[in-house]
């Protein structure tokens, strides 16, 4: 764990959703309104929230079926707390919570592959996706265009 004094929780009802939404804007992971975050975290089997004092400085979640597959998503760290190991700690905690699943997969932003490789993740050869806005996803480097 990081050397700083952080408080961890794994309960959505202990988090201010407006503050969580601001964290995703700052991280920057995009605009995720509080009502959207209530749904995606509410439907996730595992979640982590990290506070430094009264300030939410980190979050992450994992969808999971309990046996076969878990998928880590939405790992966010406040910019003032990045580079200190907090993101690694959040991912490690989510991997611990999902222990026992046959596979743990991860959706991440392009360019973050070395970070996740350092946490034991390997590149997948067969991952594919359908996005609500595929042209935007291709432009952002999330998807490769069809041949």
UniProtKB/TrEMBL annotation:
- One GO MF term, please? N-acetyltransferase activity
> Record's Gene3D superfamilies?
3.40.630.30
Annotated PROSITE patterns:
GNAT
Domain N-acetyltransferase residues, every copy: 7-145
Q: Which CDD domains does this one have? A: NAT_SF
Q: Which keywords belong to this entry? A: Acyltransferase, Transferase
What are the coiled-coil residue ranges?
none
User: What's one GO-annotated cellular component?
Assistant: cytoplasm
User: InterPro entries in the record, alphabetically?
Assistant: Acyl_CoA_acyltransferase, GNAT_dom, NSI-like
Q: Which residue ranges does UniProt annotate as crossing the membrane?
A: none
Q: What is the lineage of its organism?
A: Bacteria, Bacillati, Actinomycetota, Actinomycetes, Kitasatosporales
Q: What protein am I looking at?
A: GNAT family N-acetyltransferase
According to its UniProt entry, this protein's organism is: Streptomyces coelicoflavus
